[in-house]
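FYI - complex with uracil, inputs then prediction.
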Amino acid sequence: MFLARLDHPADFDAWREAARTALALHVPPEEMAFAVSEDPAPLFAEPLPDRPADAAPFNVPKAFPDVARKLICHADPERFVFAYRLLWRLQDEKKLLEIVSDPDTRRAVEMQKAVYRDSHKMKAFVRFREIEDAEGQRQYIAWFEPFHHVVELTAPFFMRRFPGMVWSILTPKRSVHWDGVEMVFAPGADPSQKPADDDMEALWLTYYASIFNPARLKVKAMQAEMPKKYWHNLPEATLIEPLIRGAEAAQRRMIETQPTLPSFRHEKQAERNDMARAASQVPAFNGFNKPPEDIEEAREQARHCKACPLWEPATQTVFGKGPADAPVIFVGEQPGDQEDLAGEPFIGPAGKVFDEALAAAGIDRSQAYVTNAVKHFKFEPRGKRRIHAKPNMGEVKVCRWWLEQERELIKPKLIVALGATAAASVLGKTVTIRDTRSKLIDLPDGTTKLLVTVHPAYILRLPDPEAQAREREAFHADMDRAKAYVPEIALG
Ligand code: URA
């Protein structure tokens, strides 16, 4: 019996090294044991020898490393040996992972599902509390109790979501710290290190109570999605029962209350004052300390967004529209007059130019996700008309949080920025169309590309018909570039 020691419960790198060595030495799975740091090891186990320098390379199906990485995160104490057994069998049974009737394959699928679910719950139920460290720096700390060893697997999600904050997530077996530059994993924490209540919690409770919609209350569905075992670490859990109790009366009040018309505040100075106030008051995560779990939840949260003053004169939030797994996201600047009234992006005159270009490139709009850098219509009233006003960078910056949620949840292969405002929001810095147009730019996540083109309204505003025709053609050529990222749909 040979023993490989691993540094921590989800130590995929050490497992992979040991598994490669064991395979090179032809150690059958029954003869292998793995133990995490100081855990007790089987009696009479010998340390695994070094890998022979002349060990022959071996192949595994492309999907296996990812499968193994997830299996290693499972709480099953046999997970390391099990993953090694799969690797061992794959040497002779190349299609093993496709044979769903095989008990090992079935077990692997179930284990991966359990890990995926746990990681998903961590994304949904981690609640940060704000604290001030000894040097007066703001930090965010969360305590979470996962079933499986999902900290390594899930931490990159939080890093992408909250890159500009200093945060830690503590769990009983493992913790992770992000200082804005580097992510460091450490041993688990003691429940006594659990952060206490804070202002953030009060904010979160207010938010939760305000988005609670009595007309949509489905207690069973809610408990299935938010199992009671997570409640003791969820601040809003204390509100759930009183809110359910009050739901019927609240629903009656909603029906009886007449809808109110949006009020209009037009003075420039008032807006400047509002903006300055908003900039200094925008709470972390646009006022939501829980990132949305899916695009529907993001849309629902955004309906209530008041992170900048544009919400007030606008009729409604115009959130993105399209499939939750669209391969391409098109980003415009902000909704126009018609979009503001209908609640859908790009349905007015600029939308027509956009639709024509998509049709010319053979892109089916229903396959794409279409959204805007700013989700509320900014305008200036002229008599009965509302004239488009360009959003300022402060507003773009505040609203960028929503675009980040859309990007994170949809994970497109390509983002097409329609105009400079959209490009600035995607990149987090201003760029010129001249410098960036039509190039495929790699975004820092390493998987998404950005294509910058003009805004369709720019084409409409060109007074010279010839220049307009030229620009339309160039815009269509950019859509042809985007087409490469949209799968063909079989017609008929
Ligand atoms: N212009 C945009 O940028 N977006 C829209 O949704 C409509 C017009």
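The radius of gyration is 27 Å. Residues 126-193 form one domain.
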